């Protein structure tokens, strides 16, 4: 890793470049104008040799290997947890500066833009990008707690098929087509029929809930009460849906609560017909707030949607931007 180059125009590698998250990461890098020196796109042997476009240039996908990281300044891992675990099992070392978006459960410094202290970032190290739901819940709870003191909170989380990667999206599409043609559905990625249905996915949901809570602990510490989270699998391709209930020490009006979230949580509240929804949130790195109300039981209830892929990719790129500007680079 070249410290001077990292500051000005780093060489970047994306592991899992053909995954949904890998493609979103490329789009965010290009949209935000991160000054990339050389981009290396990495994949398993099955996808090596594919042509991909970035910033108007054609890139040839290469095989993941330690050699491929030679002269790389920032490595984003956006592959599946299975590929990440295979890389670890092979005994290969991670690049000096690694940002992990895989949710494989590896230990590292968790960083949530706007909440975490940028001083935790260094020009070398292993950094974990939070689960997209941890990003959204963390921003909402942190903002509410700072303004009104959260006493307790509970979140129902509906997960999209894209959280299982390309395989999840493909299976939901195939199940939908099969059902519309009165055929049997295949169940490889999900435990049952997801199309036109909602699945508890108990094992996968429990892992997701535990990971979100663990990351919230690292990001928010003990100042914000740990929320109760119930995750379920929804028959949508993209975007998380949230239903959150919070008990606050303060008693703001619903309008005051919304204004505070708009100021501190990267929230959008503009509404048209049918908004917000998983579809209308696609391509946005904002949290799209839906209904907000104060209930008769004394709780504040709100709904929200957010593009899981865009939220994750944007936070990872913002992390890289902060690392590039870190004072330690001048040392």
Keywords for this entry:
alpha/beta; Rossmann fold; 2 domains; 7-stranded parallel beta sheet; 33% helix; 23% strand
Topology record:
Layout (H helix, E strand, L loop, with lengths): L2 H6 L3 E4 L4 H13 L6 E5 L7 E4 L2 E4 L1 E2 L10 E4 L3 H9 L7 E4 L8 E2 L14 E4 L3 H17 L1 E10 L5 H16 L21 H19 L7 E6 L6 E9 L5 H11 L2 E2 L18 E8 L5 E7 L1 H17 L7
Helix pairs in contact: 2-8, 4-6, 4-7, 4-8
> Roughly how much helix do the residues carry, as a percent range?
25-40%
The shape is globular
C-alpha end-to-end distance: 15 Å
Strand content: 15-25%
Low-pLDDT stretches are: none
CATH class of the largest domain equals Alpha Beta
Strand order of the largest sheet: 5-2-1-6-7-9-8
Mean pLDDT across every amino acid position:
92
* Quaternary assembly: single chain
Most strands sheet: 7 strands, parallel
Radius of gyration: 20 Å
Please state the second-level CATH architecture of the largest domain: 2-Layer Sandwich
Per DSSP, the total helix count is 8
* CATH fold-level topology of the largest domain: Dihydrodipicolinate Reductase, domain 2
Report the structural category.
alpha/beta
* CATH H-level superfamily of the largest domain: Dihydrodipicolinate Reductase, domain 2
Number of domains in the coordinates?
A: 2
Query: What is the string of helix and strand elements?
Result: HEHEEEEEHEEEHEHHEEHEEEH
